[in-house]
Amino acid sequence: MISSPYSPAFIRDCIGTVFPNPGLANTQVLSGGLINTNIKIEFSSRQPPVVLRLYQGDTGVCLKETAVLSLVHSTVPVPEVIHVEPNGINGSRPFCILEFVNGMTFQQLKQTWDLDAIHQAAASVGKTLAQMGVYQFWKPGLLQTDLENELKVGDVYGEDPDPIPRLLDLFLQSEDLQRRLDHSFRQKLHNFIWSWSAQLRELNHERHLVHSDFGNRNILVDCKNGRWQVVAVLDWEFALSGSPLIDVGHFLRYEHGDTNLREPFFSRAFVEFGGVLPADWRRISRVLDLTGLVHCLTHQRLPDDVTREFLHLIESTLEGCTL
Length: 323
Description:
The protein has 323 residues and is α+β, with helices and mostly antiparallel strands. The chain contains 12 helices and 13 strands. Helix 4 (115-133) runs parallel beside helix 10 (265-272) and helix 11 (281-296) runs antiparallel to helix 12 (304-321).
């Protein structure tokens, strides 16, 4: 049975770049892909299932993500890259074929309220983030690939002494954001982020591998040998060279008030396996994540309930991190 917006013939052609005359038993669009489309492919033969990942972005996005996956595959739980078609086929968008990894998202596990499982998985996420941070680049900035499809650092956002405040100010100029936030609140955000400029400046020299979308939906977990652990970190198209606190803030985005499910298990494991947390790391990571939350409000189409959720998180950050 084919349950996909793409035709069976197109899917068969894509898979046929690796598996000649593939017998497709079933295809299923996987949840969680807000930008790119992930389709699980099951075969009528004994061939293990794979994921066909179709990119909405250009060739560079496909090459960058698959290069990152190949770089970290030996030490970080990520899907194996089986094949890459950065130019697509027959006029299609770029795509790649990845290993299918069994598991559930951290978000799904969290909804079970199995505290032992959640705490074990959170510790594994901390360990995984420390393993990611072992990879360092020669300068901070956005990752891209060169003519040989090797990873390099492109735009150096660290050349400005205050890249984070200036980035947030840029988002505040968005017409879509201005429909959602009045002038006084935008001014409040501007004043808040600049009040943290000295602390944020201390992060400018960091050049670790950062996922930059390290949320519940992009972390797959499973129970292995009686313990819950990360089995795959997905969706690396926004990866950059910078501070791991960006990922810390994103993973702990909903960890505030009386809803502590990830802490202290996540941070303890992060430090145990080599991660470094500076003084006042929790508030600094929340301030870094504020930029991501504000960026979400620049999107043209955003459901009202999601907008309210982001506004609540932004207000919570301002309240909890005011100097």
